[in-house]
Design goal:
InterPro entries: GDSL, GDSL_esterase/lipase, SGNH_hydro_sf, SGNH_plant_lipase-like. It is found in: Secreted. Residues 1-29 form the signal peptide. By secondary structure, the chain is of the alpha/beta class. It is 40% helix and 9% strand. It is built from twelve helices and nine strands. The chain has a five-stranded mixed β-sheet. Strand 6 and strand 7 form a beta hairpin.
Length: 367
């Protein structure tokens, strides 16, 4: 073989090696868990309310103004916390809404969340239709039956589901659109804040047990955030439009304390790994130290009407603020994408020992 011919063959071999290593490097690794199932309300709804008779919808501009797909039904300008967590878990795409996912799409998980939904059936009824947590669980049970059909038998499905992450974030509307809305609901005249938290936790416990009975083993319970600091509550109940509403936040703290105890209770079950994300504490840290997080406006919505841009929430085709990444709140009730990124990152990988109990989502995924 001639020297030039040998050199040519070596050159071709080298190019093939380079191409091979480049292709290997560009293959996306598998996500850390096979699937991610999401239950919740408007903080994480990504389109399940779009086609139901509800005032709690966000499938119009300027919602989604910073999201690649435009308005999808997400209640913000861009990503939600679960979108951020899905990315950090390594999923190639965002988890789809149950309303648009069937068949094999269920195998990577779906989002069952519905705006205005609560633990209690009546919660949010003044806003029209919504899928309560019980309704979301019924949809999940139907999805499990599909997963059993796809994988062949119940044992295979149970083994598969035991590796998935389940995120549950309920309770906000049971306060915002129930207990602290006496014009529509009698719960605040029936129960003290302590009694109401007990009633909620009792029902929540039964609902979460259903989730466990249908295969959930790695479960994230999201605490309720500081609703008393939202632009809507500041506009209605704060003396100066800046001081958070203590009676609302203190009621929520009672619920969150009981939720931590519920995590301990569920972790005694066979193979159960439940964890609590301290959304209240993470939010409080952002509220108290906004500049540390690149935020400048904490008491106004980027899009809304009236005092604090919070008396009426963001209207269809309203022009929002231009500096959205500096706002803690997108509208009268919901955090901005900038805030959701912070909360999502800290839920996945705790920055402080108080962010998660007993572990963050990154460690839960590794179990």
């Amino acid at each position: 073989m001639a020297h030039g011919e040998l050199r040519g063959m070596l050159w071709v071999w080298w190019l093939m090696l380079l191409a091979s290593s480049w292709l290997m490097g560009s293959v996306r690794p598998d996500p850390q868990v096979p699937c991610y199932f999401i239950f919740g309300d408007s903080l994480v709804d990504n389109g399940n309310n779009n086609d139901i008779a509800s005032l709690a919808r966000a499938d119009y501009m300027p919602y989604g103004i910073d999201f690649a797909g435009g308005p999808t039904g997400r209640f913000g300008n861009g990503l939600t916390t679960v979108d951020v967590i899905a990315q950090l878990l390594g999923f190639e795409d965002f988890i789809p809404p149950y309303a648009a996912a069937r068949g094999r799409a269920l195998l990577t998980g779906v989002n069952f969340a519905s705006a205005a939904a609560g633990i209690r059936e009546e919660t949010g009824q003044q806003l029209g239709d919504r899928i309560s947590f019980s309704g979301q669980l019924q949809n999940y049970q139907a999805a499990v039956q599909e997963v059993v059909s796809i994988l062949g038998d119940e044992d295979s499905a149970a083994n598969y589901l035991s590796k998935c992450i389940f995120s549950v974030g309920m309770g906000s509307n049971d306060y915002l659109n129930n207990y602290f809305m006496p014009a529509f609901y009698s719960s605040s005249s029936q129960y003290t804040p302590e009694q109401y938290a007990d009633v909620l936790i009792e029902q929540y416990s039964q609902q979460i047990r259903t989730l466990y009975n249908y295969g959930a083993r790695k479960v994230v319970l999201m605490g309720v955030g500081q609703i008393g600091c939202s632009p809507n509550e500041l506009a209605q109940n704060s003396p100066n439009g800046q001081t958070c509403v203590h009676r609302i936040n203190s009621g929520i703290q009672i619920f969150n304390r009981k939720l931590i105890a519920l995590v301990d209770q569920f972790n005694t079950l066979n193979q159960a790994n439940f964890t609590y994300i301290n959304a209240y504490g993470i939010f409080e840290d952002i509220w108290r130290n906004p500049s540390k997080h690149g935020l400048t406006v904490t008491n106004r919505g980027c899009c809304g009407v009236g005092k604090n841009n919070g008396q009426i929430t963001c209207l269809p085709y309203q022009t929002p603020c231009p500096n959205r990444n500096e706002y803690l709140f997108w509208d009268a009730f919901h955090p901005s994408e900038a805030a959701n990124i912070i909360i999502g990152k800290r839920s996945y990988s705790a920055e402080s020992s108080s962010d998660a109990y007993p572990m963050d989502i990154r460690h839960l995924a590794q179990i």
